[in-house]
Amino acid sequence: MTFCFAGAIAPFNHLLPDEKQHWVALCFVCKVVKGEPKILEPDKSQAIGWFTVNEMEKMNLTIASQHRLKQIKVKYPIGFPDFYR
């Protein structure tokens, strides 16, 4: 796929004290220029797809993804711009 960078959302620090881990989750907003997503590591992912905010709210998301969803709703209160133009 080819993307054009359109912005970023603030980093999220995901702390797992019981596991003594600290993950920094980055989130970028991009426009799709061409191509379709495909899984390049089938042993790590079962599916890939595009989802609306409403669909994501019904999913079992990771803590980082839940946080991202909240940030996206604040940054784009009326929905995402049309990134396919």
Describe the fold and architecture:
There is one protein chain. By secondary structure, the chain is α+β, with helices and mostly antiparallel strands. The chain is 21% helix and 34% strand. It contains 2 helices and 2 strands. The chain has a two-stranded antiparallel sheet with strand order 1-2. A hairpin with a 4-residue loop joins β1 and β2. The radius of gyration is 15 Å and the shape is globular.
How many structural domains in the coordinates? Answer: 1
**Regarding CATH, which class?**
Alpha Beta
Low-confidence stretches: none
**Head-to-tail CA distance between termini:** 16 Å
Query: Helix amount, in percent?
Result: 10-25%
Number of helices: 2
CATH architecture: Alpha-Beta Complex
CATH superfamily: Nucleoside Triphosphate Pyrophosphohydrolase
> What's the helix-strand series?
EEHH
Number of strands: 2
Overall pLDDT level: 86
Q: Tell me the radius of gyration.
A: 15 Å
- Which fold name fills CATH's third level, the topology? Nucleoside Triphosphate Pyrophosphohydrolase
Largest sheet: 2 strands, antiparallel
Structural class, from helix and strand content? alpha+beta
Percent in strands = 25-35%
Tell me, briefly, the overall form: globular
**Largest sheet: spatial strand order:** 1-2
